[in-house]
Amino acid sequence: MPTTTEPESKKLKMDDYPMSPDTEWPDAWLMPDQVEDQCAPNRLEPNVPVSAEQMRDLGICYWKMEDVDNYDYPIKAIPWDPKDAKDPKLQALRDARGYSYADIITVHPDHLPDFDLKIKAFFEEHIHDAEEIRYIVGGSGYFDVRNKEDKWVRVHVKKGDLMTLPEGIYHRFTCDEDHMIHAMRLFIGQPVWTPFNRPQEDHPSRKKYAELFLANEEKKEDGDTN
Ligand code: KMT
């Protein structure tokens, strides 16, 4: 494997790492609008799976980080310098996508003060004005995103998953029933974690998302097939 000490031309490039094949994407399914326990799987009955292609159509990107077990990450580091990445695949993603900031957090009752309040806050439906990038280095949890029909899709992320959500997508996060996720949060530029809770139809990031990912659906609903 090339390392960062090798000449520029020999460094791993993004092209060496296209998104992972569909079979490696996280499990995802439709869930009801109302749930009693946010940490339960909350599948519909019968289960309605959501494919990798459907997730990509919502703007989600995904890479499986096969070598996650070969590297140690602190339980908490705010910030964590992405230049310290040793994993060549993480280096390549960082360089290709311009991830210049990172931190590492552990969402678990013993590691996050006010755990109960925090996971309730993470579960409020919101958008961000930037891409959301999460690399799961331990544990697991659920990212819920709204699909084109405004239904919730639950994506079960686990150790080794690096997933991005596009700017402006309505989403939320919760731990699963294990109540433990160890995640690197990456960012392009200065991090802004501000959640803008729904409704945000006039927010520029929401408008951008709607234009990029929902416009064709709206045309279809209007009966315009051109
Ligand atoms: C988020 O975006 O809600 C979080 O950062 C939650 C923890 S990261 C898995």
From TrEMBL:
Molecular function as annotated in GO: acireductone dioxygenase (Ni2+-requiring) activity; acireductone dioxygenase [iron(II)-requiring] activity; iron ion binding; nickel cation binding
Residues noted as binding Fe(2+) in the record, renumbered to the chain: 126, 128, 132, 171
Alphabetical list of Pfam families matching this protein: ARD
Cofactor notes: Binds either 1 Fe or Ni cation per monomer. Iron-binding promotes an acireductone dioxygenase reaction producing 2-keto-4-methylthiobutyrate, while nickel-binding promotes an acireductone dioxygenase reaction producing 3-(methylsulfanyl)propanoate.
SUPFAM superfamilies in the record: RmlC-like cupins (SSF51182)
Residues reported in the UniProt entry to bind Ni(2+): 126, 128, 132, 171
Keywords for this protein: Amino-acid biosynthesis, Cytoplasm, Dioxygenase, Iron, Metal-binding, Methionine biosynthesis, Nickel, Nucleus, Oxidoreductase
Keyword Manganese: no
Pathway: Amino-acid biosynthesis; L-methionine biosynthesis via salvage pathway; L-methionine from S-methyl-5-thio-alpha-D-ribose 1-phosphate: step 5/6
Cofactors demanded by this protein: Fe(2+); Ni(2+)
Compartments it resides in: Cell membrane; Cytoplasm; Nucleus
One CC-aspect GO term: nucleus
InterPro entries (alphabetical): ARD, ARD_euk, RmlC-like_jellyroll, RmlC_Cupin_sf
Reaction(s) catalysed (UniProt annotation): 1,2-dihydroxy-5-(methylsulfanyl)pent-1-en-3-one + O2 = 3-(methylsulfanyl)propanoate + CO + formate + 2 H(+); 1,2-dihydroxy-5-(methylsulfanyl)pent-1-en-3-one + O2 = 4-methylsulfanyl-2-oxobutanoate + formate + 2 H(+)
Leader peptide range in chain numbering: none
Keyword flag Metal-binding: yes
EC number assigned by the record: 1.13.11.54, 1.13.11.53
GO BP: any one term: L-methionine salvage from methylthioadenosine
Membrane topology annotation: Peripheral membrane protein
Function (record text): Catalyzes 2 different reactions between oxygen and the acireductone 1,2-dihydroxy-3-keto-5-methylthiopentene (DHK-MTPene) depending upon the metal bound in the active site. Fe-containing acireductone dioxygenase (Fe-ARD) produces formate and 2-keto-4-methylthiobutyrate (KMTB), the alpha-ketoacid precursor of methionine in the methionine recycle pathway. Ni-containing acireductone dioxygenase (Ni-ARD) produces methylthiopropionate, carbon monoxide and formate, and does not lie on the methionine recycle pathway.
Family to which this protein belongs: Belongs to the acireductone dioxygenase (ARD) family.
Name of the protein described by the UniProt record: Acireductone dioxygenase
